Amino acid sequence: MTKKLVVLAVFAVWMGGCAKRNAPAPVPTNGLELWLRADTGVVAEGGRISRWQDQSGHGRDGVMANAPRQPALVASTLNGLPVVRFEGAQSLYLKEPVSPEAFTILVVGKNNNPEDTFSMILGPGGNFPNNQLRWENGGEVLAVGTGNGLPAVTTAVGDTRAYHLLTARYDGATLTVHMNGRLAGSHPVKAQGSWVLSQVGAYFSQHYAEADLAEVRIYSQAFPAADLASVEAELKSRYALR
Predict the structure, then answer these.
(1) I need a surface site. Which of 116, 120, 181, 213 has the fewest CB within 10 A?
(2) Are 236 and 182 in contact (CB under 8 A)?
(3) Nearest-CA neighbor of 88 among 216, 166, 202, 204?
(4) Residues 6+ apart with CB under 8 A from 37
């Protein structure tokens, strides 16, 4: 082999290694119960969303037939990617509720409510228990599960009105909350049974989100620390979050 070919071969190997190192980590699917992405599977007409298709394979699409209650699809908003916008009167019902016991929930979005009151992320609907994950105000997140005895837990996370990655993880003994991959709070709690969530952006069709959502994932497992860090890094990179 000539010197020139040797150099090209070494360069090709080096480039291949760089490509592998720079490739995004694959999305874990073990225990993935709900996966909503604003850039995939959104059924919209006139900018209003009637169906947000679940990418997990479980068919838990978010649906809303009533046009005034449909959230909006807003293009090229977060790192060039779209978001689903809830404006204080919109929500999506999950065709089938998600009901993990242990869980990891990852949400990319922001709270648009200018008041120091709550803005729903995931909540109850129909006859399901009053379980909630919500932005409590401009700087906190609240999780509660009246259906499984999860006490109301509030965590100071920082500015919820800027785009961020919010992670809630429960392993059966401890609820931890991360903001952009950094630990914001750790709470020893004991719940009994499943944490049923059946609606995106509302609480019993009474209290609604003012928010943007770019992605929501719910897993029925509490990720080990290293795996969680990898998933959070992938989402932060995808949406250019710090």
Answers:
(1) 116
(2) no
(3) 202
(4) 55, 214, 215
Cβ contacts of residue 42 below 8 Å, gap of 6+? Answer: 49, 51, 52, 53, 73, 82, 84
Q: Are 178 and 166 in contact (CB under 8 A)?
A: yes
Q: What is the CA radius of gyration of the chain?
A: 19
Whether residue 152 is predicted with pLDDT greater than 50 in this model: the reply is yes
pLDDT at 45 over 90: yes
When pLDDT is cut at 50, 70 and 90, the band that residue 111 belongs to is: very high
Paired sense of beta strands 48-52 and 42-45, if any: antiparallel
- 161-183: burial string, b at 16+ Cβ within 10 Å, e else: bebbbbbbbbeeeebbbbbbbee
Neighbours of 68 (CB within 10 A): 8
Distance from C-alpha of 88 to C-alpha of 140, rounded to nearest angstrom: 19
Chain length of the chain: 242
CA-to-CA distance for 2 and 8, rounded, in angstroms? Answer: 10
In this prediction, residues 159-166 reach a mean pLDDT of 98
Region 96-120: mean pLDDT is: 97
Is pLDDT larger for residue 193 or for residue 27? 193
